[in-house]
Amino acid sequence: MGFKMGIVGMPNVGKSTLFNALTRTAAAQAANFPFCTIEPNVGEVAVPDRRLERLAAIAASRAVVPTRMTFVDIAGLVKGAAQGEGLGNQFLANIRECDAIAHVLRCFEDDDVTHVDGRIDPVADAETIGTELMLADLESIERRLQNLTRKVRGGDREAVQQERLLKAAQAALEEGRPARSVDVSDDDARAWSMLQLLTTKPILYVCNVAEDEAATGNTLSERVAAMAAAEGAGTVTISARIEEEIAQLDPEEAAEFLSELGLEEAGLDRLIKAGYDLLGLMTYFTVGPKEARAWTVPKGTRAPQAAGVIHGDFERGFIRAETTAYEDYVELGGEAGAKEAGKMRVEGKTYEVKDGDVMHFLHSG
User: Fold this and answer.
1) 171-to-50, 119, 147 alpha-carbon distances in Å
2) Is the torsion defined by CA of 313, 318, 320, 323 positive or negative?
3) pLDDT (tens digit, 9 = 90+) per residue, 158-208?
């Protein structure tokens, strides 16, 4: 399992440039005019993880299979999108299908790149799109509440729960707060997620800065960081132009280029890490002579469910998991060394998988 992140923003903020760079393709037409993205562009990238390469080298694995992340480049939203302005509601539907939203904000000055509202104000841009998503949710809630009326009167338990949750979301939205600000109990969590409201999606604000500000940010990105902190959202500072240049280089040249700019890693790495944190995800590994492979699961996942990510039969027939911490696997030279040193543990059905665990599942059937 990886995850799907929708890239949204006002027109001409660098969304498509970033998408092209991240997916190493030119599938999205990056052009200096609004709505150059007519259909959502979808691209998959391998999630960079230096640990996987290290494990593969120790085990002499013939293949290395990273986990993958999907980016969806969604056309620029404008004020009035919820009422069909610009390219309207079709893009709101595209957002609904994503696990999280990367909201690209223009934090650079460039007279050659026009801004649809004629000003550079990333916080105002964020508020514009946030408002459109809230308006779309309100419209959706009102429609659904009307459709539920008959079932609620008939005492349908599921409909009563849906109505209660929709009204809680409606109250928050009418106060100008996104639906994700609603406190939802564990008993309601599944029904809440099934509502698929746009403003329940976790948001990562991506500050697109000029090349010479990629390492330090600027006053505009600082304002975005303050806004994100107040909302409990994530933030990452990237130069889409730098990512575009890195996409054309081999790994050695890219590392040298980043070093010259005072950057330790590419924006892709930071974006994915921030996305993982936002969604509470982590990685475990399976390692052998055939392949070394990374798997993504939510934090708190128990061993049988982690096995189920590989194959449903592994979860259904789960017996135990032979587990070694990444650090122990590396330090002791692999599986044999870890087992000899007593660092390979046998874990059962209640074990919560830890980030970096190297696992071998035993199952029946």
Assistant:
1) 45, 32, 18
2) positive
3) 999 999 999 999 999 999 999 999 999 999 999 999 998 999 999 999 999
Closest CA to 189 of 316, 313, 300, 75: 300
Which pairs count as long-range contacts for 174-178, CB under 8 Å and 24+ apart, including other chains? 174/138, 176/134, 178/130, 178/133, 178/134
HEC string for 207-253: EECCHHHCCCCCHHHHHHHHHHHHHCCEEEEECHHHHHHHCCCCHHH
pLDDT of residue 2: 57
Whole-number Å distance between alpha carbons of 196 and 166 = 11
Identify the CA nearest to 267 among candidates 208, 332, 329: 208
Look at strands 100-106 and 63-65 and give their pairing: unpaired
Token pair 């890195």 is at which residue?
246
First to last CA, the chain: 23
d(CA 347, CA 329): 16
> Do 73 and 28 form a contact (C-beta atoms < 8 A)?
yes
pTM to 2 decimals? 0.81
**Conformation bin of residue 196: beta by default, left when phi > 0, alpha when psi is -120 to 50:** left
Distance CA 190, CA 188 (A): 6
Query: What φ, ψ does residue 64 adopt, rounded to 5°?
Result: -120, 120
Closest CA to 199 of 178, 176, 228, 172: 178
Kind plus residue range of the DSSP H or E element containing 348 = none
Nearest one of 67, 138, 93, 128 to 306, comparing CA atoms? 67
| Paired tokens of 109 | 């000055």
Where b means 16+ CB within 10 Å and e means fewer, 265-275 reads ebbbbbbbbbb
| Sequence-separated (6 or more) residues with CB below 8 Å from residue 101 | 5, 6, 8, 95, 201, 202, 203, 204
